[in-house]
Model the fold of this input.
Amino acid sequence: MARRKSEFGPNLGSILQGAPAALVWQFLASFKRPDDTLLAPPEITEGTTDDQGKAALSAYLRSEDKEIIGLLEGIAGALLDMGQDKGATSLETVAGQRLQNIDYDQYESQPDLLCKSIWMRTVFPMHFHDAQSFYAARRYRERRTYYTCCEVDFDHASVADTDGIPDEKLCDAVQEALGLKGKVTASVLELPETANYPPSFMVALRHPGPLSSIDNHREEGGWTVHYYRPSHEAVLIYTPQLKKIEVASASSDVREKTSKVFAEVVLGRPPSAKPLTRREFNLERFRSSFDLDCPDLEDVEITMAAVVEAEVRLGSWGRRLNIKVTIKDKMEDVVRKYVSNSANLIRSFGFTKIAIAIGYTRRSDGKEGTFRVSISDGSSSDVQSMRDPFLRDLGFRLLEHWGLTQNLRTLTDQERAQWFGFLLSLYDLPGDTVAGAFFNSAGVDPARLVSARLIARKGRQVIGLAEDDDEVVEVEQQTGPEPGTVRQTGSFGEADGLRLDTNAIEYGIDRAWLAETILKAIAGSLGIRNIETINEFLVSLGPMALGERKVPLYLARRLADLKARESVETALRSRHTAGPGLVLAVSDEPPQFLGPNVVIALRDLLLNDGSLGDLDREEMARRFEANRTLATSAQVAQVVRHTPRSATLIIPGLEPLTLDGVGQIQLFESLVEAATDGTGQRLTKVLMDGMGSDNPRQLFSSGAWAKAHPTYIRHGSSNRYWRLGEATDTA
Done:
């Protein structure tokens, strides 16, 4: 029997089913609509049974707007998350520190974890949000998403308890560093020790985002605009024992500035000190071998280095395999002997933790010793917490020698401006993986972009391309005898010599950090502040003064891709009340218009060498006015060609229509000719002659056809004829 579909969505349905009706009523009655009015669910009296109450609430919700139900569904999902597993323990931690006496007794009296979650969200919403921040920070720690880790590299930094965190001073400093107009608020929480982490402190810094608005229709038929600022958040965790600052935020720039401000304001780090050290750890090398060499350093001889512990997650964060060996054992031999049948499968998952035992002898005094370091893939190592400065320095030197870590160095303003044209090309790529040949052909060193965290090395291509007697053939690429080399094997197994692996390496693009780097550069060049990401292809840069006009400014990528462009056009149409805007296109040779919006290639505004200077507002204003004049002052229909496969249809009284491909251009050129030569229409057979299809509909995607027909193209005197849209009748 098929499962009955929930009336309200799975989350809200679970809340109605799993909590008492009186508590659900209390939750609904505390919910505010976008216009700031409260919901008014039916009252539940003492004589009402739980089933009767739930039936009444269900009937009430069925009568509510779908938009309200959608908002409630999202909140219900959060209530379920905080009512189970680590969400519930996060809620318990906050309740134990924040609630007093009677309030805590009420919290504890709730019948189960879900009810505790609902009660806290209803009665103490700010405490609930703090618990959410704690829960999110725990997940970011584990999964390394939206996450930055910095090391505190000076010895006197200490915070005894949460009273030692000057939250008001910290908020003022963060507000100044981020250039925010609205006030920053802070929630401070002590985090207890867990199996994986020592005691630490969490600071949730919340600040206002860019101004947004929604249209609200009144009952009498009119409408009004409600403006609001969504709350943005940066969650910061400081662990004194590890001398480590961890920051979670969707913005890499916010993470970097917040950690710097915290180190200076709370930990007393001198403002003139060098930037905080941000190291990234990578355990990819252990996929192929556990062997480590013993480097002969200038001040110390490494006498032994062996992997003694390896942990791998088996397909999920809940399943793990941990292998420990003694110093006398060899991890490679143990894995080969005891998990031989599954060794390749285990290595395919990748290791999440590695522990290395190290033996050394000092050259100065002959002192011998051993120590152990642990590394977690992402941003965690216990080297920083070593009290002995000699061992701490030696540990980091060895990790760098073995290729397990590197310092994170963000691009300087000069580098960002110099490579801006190349960064645009990287930003406009369709996928999240790019081959080394892309960087080689552009003359850009990918190692510098890796150190800036814009890209990350993902592995090497097994199959490559090579020239053989003026033909391009496939070759197999295997590990070479020296780092940075590969052995190539031809199509018939013949050796094809050694090659550098520069073109064979694949890199993953950090989309969020790359986008923020580009937007930060544009914002600095144009002096703008209000940046809003609309979707993965479109960003709003706010209103900008161009000449005597003030127009909306946008940045769009992937406009050469039809689906991406349709997504951008749909988003722009939803913002039509702002008036015609200017779209800066990342792609080369973009369409000239997107609806009423003028499009210009951002590259046309760069310096001759492709670097970023001060973007020329006068040129932007000139191009905007020229194209708008072309679109609004046309007296007759016309097709304006831009490239052999790209053009714009302009019809008086209508928004410009972008044409893609030779077929669409020829189609409308023929219809424009018919509109101006007195015939007014074309026979289908004549219109489609030589196009390889027998109907105009076949030249368009479904979305493009819906936009073109019948506004720009429609049937003529019969279904056998076609003509331009209605607006041409009076042309």
Remarks:
- The chain has 23 helices and 33 strands.
- The longest strand covers residues 300-313.
- Confidence is low (pLDDT under 50) at residues 1-6.
